[in-house]
Amino acid sequence: MAALRMGSTMLVMSLVAMACGSGTSSQAQAPTSAAQQRLQGNWQLLQFRPNLQLEAPLQGLLDAQLQALTITFDAGAFSATGPGVDAVGRYEITSASGDSLGGRLYDRAGAGYGITGQFVGTQFRFTSTDSPWAGSGILERAR
User: Closest Cα to residue 139, out of 45, 40, 74?
Assistant: First the structure.
């Protein structure tokens, strides 16, 4: 069960996106601040496709999270709750331009996971770049 919780935390880390980056100029701050504002609030996991096939227990955990996992972003912190998942961490937006952003998520232990993504309507379509949860997915703004 501890392995599944650790896997859950890593899944949450990889399924989510960024927040407040630290630019060196006010011009660099504006896009990351706008991305920060757009990311704020509650999101639900609609889809995630890992780059590599997951082992059966992790695939089962992932399947249980679809349309059930809620991720809340708030001022550089995130929380994720769903079946068997209760995780918190921090995030930062390191780059942003228009509807796109890049950043890192950090788990409780401080391990970082790279994320890129794009806002499309009420969705945030993301790519997680670090193992074991490298892949792509879709978050939708919770109603």
Answer: 45
Residue 112 CB contacts under 8 Å (≥ 6 apart), including other chains? 104, 105, 106, 130
pTM for this predicted structure = 0.78
* Residue 111: half-sphere exposure toward Cβ, Cα within 13 Å: 13
Q: What pLDDT digit, counting tens, does each position of 24-47 carry? A: 444 546 899 999 999 999 999 999
CB atoms within 10 A of CB 109: 8
Euclidean distance between CA atoms 137 and 47, whole angstroms: 5
> How many CB atoms lie under 10 A from the CB of residue 24?
7
- Answer positive or negative: Cα dihedral of 35, 31, 75, 115: positive
Q: What class has domain 2-141?
A: mainly beta
Residue type at 3 in one-letter notation = A
Q: Where are the beta strands (DSSP E) in 22-64?
A: 41-50
